[in-house]
Design a protein that fits this description.
The chain is built from four helices and six strands. The chain is of the alpha+beta class. The protein has one domain (18-117): YhbY-like (Translation Initiation Factor IF3), CATH 3.30.110.60. A hairpin with a 2-residue loop joins strand 5 and strand 6 (96-100). The two termini are 17 Å apart.
Length: 122
């Protein structure tokens, strides 16, 4: 894994970049998922960020649907959400983004990585 240095709230953190094989595995698992967070017409609010963090802590891998017709505006919302949550964008297709963030303590009953492990080839 490569390490990428990033900034979040004036703090420097070290984030591990996903390898091609890891991304492929996460996309395979993500294919079976439905969006659990939806960013509506009000845009990226504090409540949306909190709900995304809660979902990432529980499930580790989630889909987020971003409303809006303007591609640049959707891309800006996705980038802001990734930065605010500390997650990694695995895949973007249209209005759907697949986000991954490793949980500090994995919940065996809620983690999509555990629940859908049979879908990956690894």
């Amino acid at each position: 894994m490569q390490a990428i240095l990033g900034r979040f709230s004036n703090q420097v953190f070290l984030m591990a970049a996903l390898s091609i094989h890891e991304r492929k595995r996460l996309r395979q698992i993500g294919h079976a998922l439905n969006p659990v967070v939806m960013v509506g017409s009000h845009g990226l609010t504090e409540n949306v960020i909190e709900e995304t963090n809660r979902a990432l802590n529980d499930h580790e891998l989630i889909k987020v649907k971003v409303a809006g017709e303007d591609r640049e505006a959707r891309a800006a919302v996705i980038d802001a959400l990734v930065e605010a949550t500390g997650a990694e964008s695995v895949q973007k297709i249209g209005k759907i983004v697949l986000l991954y963030k490793k949980a500090a303590k994995q919940n065996q009953h809620l983690s999509n990585l555990v629940r859908f492990a049979h879908l990956s080839n690894n």
